[in-house]
Amino acid sequence: MEKVDNFENKSAVKAEKFGTFLRVYTPSVLTILGLVMYLRFGGGDASGGW
Fold first, then answer.
1. Rounded distance, CA 50 to CA 44, Å?
2. 47: left (phi over 0), alpha (psi -120 to 50) or beta
3. What is the pLDDT of residues 2-17, one digit of tens each?
4. How far is the C-alpha of 7 from the C-alpha of 38, rounded, in Å?
5. How much is the pLDDT for 49?
6. Does pTM surpass 0.85?
């Protein structure tokens, strides 16, 4: 069997680097908006008699 070295050609594999905005702020904002929407729509359903 032939040994395959994955680190032989490092330039062939490019890792995408995300900035602070995409890694931290986007998930945080989406979580907060999801919570707000959940609470708002839940209250609307309750007051609507569903």
1. 9
2. alpha
3. 666 655 555 555 666 7
4. 46
5. 63
6. no
